[in-house]
Write a structure and sequence with these properties.
With 138 residues, the protein is α/β, with parallel strands linked by helices. 23% of the residues lie in helices and 14% in strands. The chain has a two-stranded parallel ribbon. Strands 3-4 form a two-stranded parallel sheet. The protein is globular, with a radius of gyration of 16 Å.
């Protein structure tokens, strides 16, 4: 999804930063995002980043107009609970980094796997669930 969206954004005058660890899903490959109409006006760069840790990669968000987050430790429904936990940690780190960089727009895209069967069993709501906030441990 990220490559396809990057291609569309490159049709405009955008600078696209693609963050990835390149070890998991992409297995070291850095594919060139292809604009659907074949005309690239914008620019792009790759930044190697371990989103499970809030690190140096967060500096790349400074001055960003928007952040669109697709990353997951394992994007498939067969993901283990540990992989799901890592994916949620990645999302939390991206949110924290975007907030610190004062990014005004943040889009999170995820699979139905994180819903934990919501579509099949309905939502799981609990009045005992703790509130989430800046002090919530990851």
């Amino acid at each position: 999804l990220g490559q396809r969206l990057a291609g569309f954004l490159l049709e405009g005058r955008y600078h696209v930063v693609l963050l990835d660890d390149f070890a998991g899903f992409h297995k070291g490959m850095k594919n060139t995002p292809a604009p659907p109409n074949g005309t690239q006006i914008g620019t792009y760069e790759y930044v190697q980043a371990d989103l499970t840790e809030l690190g140096e990669w967060s500096a790349t968000l400074a001055g960003a107009h928007a952040v669109i987050h697709f990353a997951a430790a394992n994007p498939y429904p067969e993901a283990t609970w540990e992989e799901s936990r890592l994916s949620m940690r990645m999302s939390a780190n991206v949110i924290a980094a975007a907030q610190r960089a004062r990014v005004r727009r943040l889009v999170l895209a995820s699979s139905s796997h994180v819903l934990g069967g919501y579509l099949q069993e309905g939502p799981c709501l609990s009045a005992d669930a703790p509130a989430l906030g800046p002090q919530t441990p990851l």
